[in-house]
Amino acid sequence: MIKQLEVVRREHLKEKPDMATLGFGTVFTDYMLSMDYNPEQGWHNAVILPYQNIELSPAAQVLHYGQAVFEGMKAYRTGDEVRLFRPEENFRRMNQSNARLNMPEVDIDFMVDTLKQLVTLEKDWIPTGEGQSLYIRPFVIATEAYLGVRAATHYKLLIILSPVGAYYGSDHLLATKIYVEDEYVRAVRGGVGFAKVAGNYAASLMAQTRATELGYDQVLWLDGVEQRYVEEVGSMNIFFVIDGTVVTPELNGSILPGITRKSILELAQHLGYPVEERRISIDDVFEASQAGTLQEIFGSGTAAVIAPVGSVKYKDQELVVNNGQAGLVTLDLYNHYTGIQNGTEKDPFGWCVKL
Ligand code: COI
Prior knowledge:
- InterPro entries: Aminotrans_IV, Aminotrans_IV_CS, Aminotransferase-like, B_amino_transII, BCAT-like_C, BCAT-like_N, BCAT_family.
- The protein is an alpha+beta fold.
- The chain has 2 domains: 6-164, Aminotransferase class 4, branched-chain amino acid transferase, N-terminal domain (D-amino Acid Aminotransferase, Chain A, domain 1, 2-Layer Sandwich); 176-342, Alpha-Beta Barrel (D-amino Acid Aminotransferase, Chain A, domain 2), CATH 3.20.10.10.
- It has 8 helices and 18 strands.
- Strands 1, 2, 3, 4, 5, 6, 7, 8 and 18 form a 9-stranded mixed beta sheet that branches.
- A hairpin with a 3-residue loop joins β2 and β3 (42-50).
- The radius of gyration is 20 Å and the shape is globular.
- Bound molecules: 2-OXO-4-methylpentanoic acid.
- 2-OXO-4-methylpentanoic acid binds next to loops.
């Protein structure tokens, strides 16, 4: 395992965009990290280099059999102070995803140190406006040129950085409209639903396109066996506030173990909210709505942060949550969560890693 990092400087830095109008995932910084794997050297050739296109054989296995894993994390800046949020958790999850796709694991401490160096170099790219951050996208792809179906021998890990604002629309707290998918499924137990692999997202796109065409923001996936139990939304985990309790579907092998999900469970308990991780059916959700006990719904994810859900459409029924507005529990969690990330609030959990 390599322990050193080379830095190749670029001659001219890019012009920074107007940070006031940032959306999500369209602007990339000056530098990226690249690292290669082969069976003889393990991970090697770690280098920070100018952001650029990569060269890939048309026979690279990622292009044919989809060995591709990614992560999403963020860096925040207040004045000169820069923080990463739980970076070791992301590399731990990357290793779980890598293992599931028969790809080599990474050294978590080395990756966190390397990321710190990359983000330090790029700290002027971290936007500081309300709801803004530097989105960090580590990913691993199979690069071996071979058309036989087996685990590749050669891989590339890259980390690219993108200054971002809200994922949905112009504001993290704009309520989203959710469409419950009742034809396709996202994942099945024993499959790769728990892993952050590119194929899960590819398989979700047809339903997402249909939902978008019908005027909804995101798809809510049901379990792959009975199509009855709530699993997750396309880009986030999901939470319900029912009778004062913060409820989220329990992890079952087909739901992504979100780091924001885990953090919200810890934060909600810390703030005194009862929390439950349990199976919850879509019928339970509509029944709770009819009974008046469904108070709020929100999604959670690195990109989405905490995103209120304003309505849910399932077959021929549609429910509106909290008059289509962010609820009090959602706002409370959002304020504390982003306060910890931005450094305006104490971090009782030790989540933030300062550069
Ligand atoms: C994230 O929240 O970081 C994600 O990976 C979700 C999405 C942008 C794919």
